[in-house]
Amino acid sequence: MKDQIPVKNVTPVKVHKPANADKGQRYASRSRIYVRAVKGPLETFRRFFGFFFLALFAVIPWLRYEGRQAVLLDIMEQRFTLFGLTLWPQDLTLLAYILIVSAFALFFVTTFAGRVWCGFMCPQTTWTYIYVWLEKKIEGSRNKRIKLDQRPMDADKFWRKTLKQTAWVAVALVTSLTFVGYFTPIGPLFIDFFTFNTSFAAAFWVLFFAACTYGNAGYMREIMCTHICPYARFQSAMFDKDTFTVAYDAKRGEKRGPRSRKLSYEEVKEKGMGDCIDCNLCVQVCPTGIDIRNGLQYECINCGACVDACNGVMDKMNYPKGLISFTSEQQLEGGKTKIIRPKLVGYFVVLMVMIGLLTANILLRVPLEVDIIRDRNSLYRETNDGLIENVYTLKILNKSQETQTYNIAITGLPDYRFIGETSVTVAGGEVFSNPVSVATDAYNLEETVTDIRFRVSTTEADGDKVVVDEPTKFLYR
């Protein structure tokens, strides 16, 4: 055979390995990651972004609107209150639209800027940072924490560890109480919990979510990102060569290695060395413990900590910044990043359409639900006056938050007699059951089944008239 398969010479890159890898323990438990503190514009922005949403999370359940908790997702009562809007199980289409909008917003942002949700907004990232910050304040910097864990237990180590655990538990408990406060009135929840008067269900969920927060942010940390969260697995389906991700410029950085700070940038290049001084700071500041110099990895959450760390080193060495940066594969290969591209435009169009449908559903939503239940004992009956009578039960659901008076009428049936309340008052968010009967002369009925409608109407405080026509059947013979 004369045809030969061309062989490409591949130079292996330097791979960052766990501490136990050199000892032949390929499947040993993970090495603990001691995250080093980093300062820089990206880290400052990330903290602000995370704490902004953290503040929203903490404040929203305490807000009041017209004398009630503004946001209350009452699962037991099957009623979600969002300021002036009350949602019921019948409004699940709105929830579906909200979830679809959230999904396509995530797809759009990920296609454009990679896993910025994970790095800047994810609750796991935010709470992990809080726990690491507490750890740093109590036990010291990264090197001090490593030495503290290596030395035997003494008085200093004992009180530091105890204080840290106490702080972690306190944060977990406050977080859990706030979260459960979205589903039950938050004021009584805090009072009842700390006075030991809360119900078993509320206490169970508070302790359950506190344990989850404590375990996830205190110990599991990067395991949530690398092994449990499904988003890390399917993110690559949304990436393309123009997606902005945290990346290392290997062409500029290699050949890496330490060097004297006295050497000028030009002298370093003359010696054939790259800009990377192999300080490993990018690894030490990474919350998932990866080496970004090995290329794009599913563990990377695009937090940008390595960008700030590397730029700080480049400043000290008087080298140009951007050895590690938010860039695209296209740009690393010497091309130009295409911002507007079919996939991104497609996600944006679908996102706008779904936002429009969600908005339309909210604006066109009728704050009244009417359900008609026929009497199951008899299809019809004849009264003493010789009239044909059908019995119904009207379920009137006031989906607004104000008390409303509803007028009830019948359409589609001539010369009828209505027996029951024709005007009912229903409190906001309540269901009113109104048993009624409708009777008419048999001479008015041309068929055995007549289509009729119950018309329920009201006039709201702002003058808008709300009318619901609910169809049903009038039976004879």
Automatic annotation (TrEMBL):
<keyword id="KW-1133">Transmembrane helix</keyword>
<dbReference type="InterPro" id="IPR017900">
    <property type="entry name" value="4Fe4S_Fe_S_CS"/>
</dbReference>
<keyword id="KW-0812">Transmembrane</keyword>
<keyword id="KW-0249">Electron transport</keyword>
<dbReference type="InterPro" id="IPR013783">
    <property type="entry name" value="Ig-like_fold"/>
</dbReference>
<keyword id="KW-0472">Membrane</keyword>
<dbReference type="InterPro" id="IPR009051">
    <property type="entry name" value="Helical_ferredxn"/>
</dbReference>
<feature type="transmembrane region" description="Helical">
    <location>
        <begin position="94"/>
        <end position="114"/>
    </location>
</feature>
<keyword id="KW-0411">Iron-sulfur</keyword>
<dbReference type="InterPro" id="IPR014116">
    <property type="entry name" value="Cyt_c_oxidase_cbb3_FixG"/>
</dbReference>
<protein>
    <submittedName>
        <fullName>Cytochrome c oxidase accessory protein CcoG</fullName>
    </submittedName>
</protein>
<dbReference type="InterPro" id="IPR051684">
    <property type="entry name" value="Electron_Trans/Redox"/>
</dbReference>
<keyword id="KW-0479">Metal-binding</keyword>
<keyword id="KW-0408">Iron</keyword>
<dbReference type="InterPro" id="IPR032879">
    <property type="entry name" value="FixG_C"/>
</dbReference>
<dbReference type="Pfam" id="PF13746">
    <property type="entry name" value="Fer4_18"/>
</dbReference>
<feature type="transmembrane region" description="Helical">
    <location>
        <begin position="193"/>
        <end position="214"/>
    </location>
</feature>
<feature type="transmembrane region" description="Helical">
    <location>
        <begin position="344"/>
        <end position="364"/>
    </location>
</feature>
<keyword id="KW-0004">4Fe-4S</keyword>
<keyword id="KW-0813">Transport</keyword>
<feature type="domain" description="4Fe-4S ferredoxin-type">
    <location>
        <begin position="267"/>
        <end position="295"/>
    </location>
</feature>
<dbReference type="Pfam" id="PF11614">
    <property type="entry name" value="FixG_C"/>
</dbReference>
<feature type="transmembrane region" description="Helical">
    <location>
        <begin position="48"/>
        <end position="65"/>
    </location>
</feature>
<dbReference type="Pfam" id="PF12801">
    <property type="entry name" value="Fer4_5"/>
</dbReference>
<feature type="transmembrane region" description="Helical">
    <location>
        <begin position="167"/>
        <end position="187"/>
    </location>
</feature>
<dbReference type="InterPro" id="IPR017896">
    <property type="entry name" value="4Fe4S_Fe-S-bd"/>
</dbReference>
